[in-house]
## 1
Amino acid sequence: MIADLSGKTAIITGGGQGLGLGISTKIAGQGANIIVTDLDDRNKSTVEELAKTNNVDFLYLEMDVMNSEQITESMKKAIDFSKIDILVNNAGVPGAPGSTGTRWRDEDWDFTWKVNVKGLHEVTEAILPHMIENKSGKIINISSVAAKAAKYATAYYATTKMAVIAYTQALAREFGSSNINVNAIAPGRILTQFHKDWVENRKKLGDTTTDLFSKESLSSVMPLGRAQSPEDIGALAAFLASEDAKNITGQTIQCDGGQVMS
Ligand SMILES: NC(=O)c1ccc[n+]([C@@H]2O[C@H](COP(=O)([O-])OP(=O)(O)OC[C@H]3O[C@@H](n4cnc5c(N)ncnc54)[C@H](O)[C@@H]3O)[C@@H](O)[C@H]2O)c1
């Protein structure tokens, strides 16, 4: 089995839906126990079923990555549950609630930064000492092709996703000697609630030229001619989390059906 994760334990933030659920599915499918965190207990029964099907253990924690106290408490529970081998920082937002996608609203800059960058950093900081002590760990941060192609996002969102790449590289350099691999995945567009919100924002801005919320329209902008699924991102995450990827660190790997080539 490539990407054998038997006996490992992974935390997936924002793992209750969308990409996070696809990542949880693939990681559990490769034999790892999963600790899924999210704002609430959405799809907890699906995660439970996933664990049962793959004969792995699971823990579901309600954790807002903007809440430092909750992060400390939840990550302590996670470490009490198991040695943590893998952290997937997936939780992310396209803007503040009610965002219209304009580039200048303070709320959007602040909120998006707090979730996509500061939250990701605080969760990582809560787990890093544990990984350093164990002299092993795999950290995978979810960036976006938005960091590579301005066309695909608002300025504030693209900025946070580029920050995730810089953060990934800095950590990879600093903690390589502790046998910790840190990589990022840059997904292309995938039909999730997140994407739906983004399309709604574009419409509010008066963008009527594209209807991107359909499998057909998304497929048409992919050189491979097929829309991506959350599990496509999960497969790459599982590989990066495995020993087969032990020589890969500090990289941002696009998984986007060829949508953006650079
Ligand atoms: N869908 C896409 O087209 C796409 C493309 C590139 C990158 N991404 C990235 O993938 C990640 C997941 O996006 P998705 O498309 O699955 O979105 P989604 O909205 O379907 O899921 C995001 C998950 O994150 C959780 N979340 C949001 N704010 C949180 C917070 N403050 N604390 C804890 N959890 C929180 C949500 O509850 C949800 O379960 C994000 O980082 C996003 O930027 C998505």
## 2
Amino acid sequence: MPGKEVAVGIDIGGTNTIFGFADRGGNILAEDRLKTTHYEEVEVFVAALYEKILVTAKKISEPLDIKGFGIGAPMGNINKGTIEHAAGLPWKGIIPLADLFRKHTDLPVVVTNDANAAAVGEMIYGGAKDMKNFVVITLGTGLGSGFVIDGKLVYGHDGFAGEIGHTAIRPGPSNRDCGCGRKGCLETYVSATGLKRTLLKIMADSIEPSDLRKYSFEELDAEIIHDYAKKGDHLAIRAFQHTGRMLGFKLADVVAHTNPEAIFLFGGLALAKDLIFEPAKEYMEENLLSIYKGKVKLLASQLSTQNAAVLGASSLIWTNEIK
Ligand SMILES: [Zn+2]
């Protein structure tokens, strides 16, 4: 008896790698994860990931007919199946990810940028179902972006279109170092790590008391800052406001480049809701060219944080136009 047709969607993030088995209707039958940061060697990582995928598949009660592996990763290149110089991952240089996967399987393996995968997920299963022009911004350890224009995901000449995380928001030699080797990139401000850097700067410049001061650099993360902001901690709220404004300022440029109907925010920081959306919306509107004002929707991803990336990655196997 043939099994249920599924695609394995894999989202490789700077901290965690999440994978799931998705059917054509976008239902995830099972999901699991492993820590990306535990693997210094990418070959060991791929072997461990493949093994864990097989173990998880066996736990699903019905027989599966796996159609392929769709992988979203920072600096993932759909043309070559590579990850190239991803600042936020443990592996440097050009990683032949699809080829490494093919050592374990003869099934199709498709690699793309994680934000592009999230955009495909949003388009097929989420809030962008009826849209032809939209942008998805992923806010995780770093910042990714996927652009859909006239119903098509934009890949560009080399497959690397849409890296707004590495466009400058504060250019100049005295600005924040980015993992990409440059300075003042958007993701050094607008990301989980950017938020933490901003909070630490605010704490250093201020004498206002805050319980956040008891945390060490290592202990602090975006979730803790979010918790304190919800409780009304002024420094945490200021850190979110600053992050949201930087994002909004850059989004005004994004709108001028692609004239989207909507911009979706996806990922951990997007869960902070008004804390990030309000300043982002305000600064975007304030900086928009008048022809765009009041027209661009800034929305939360309609898919749950983990599912969009996994669904998007899995749908790479279903979509014919992306090869
Ligand atoms: Zn950068």
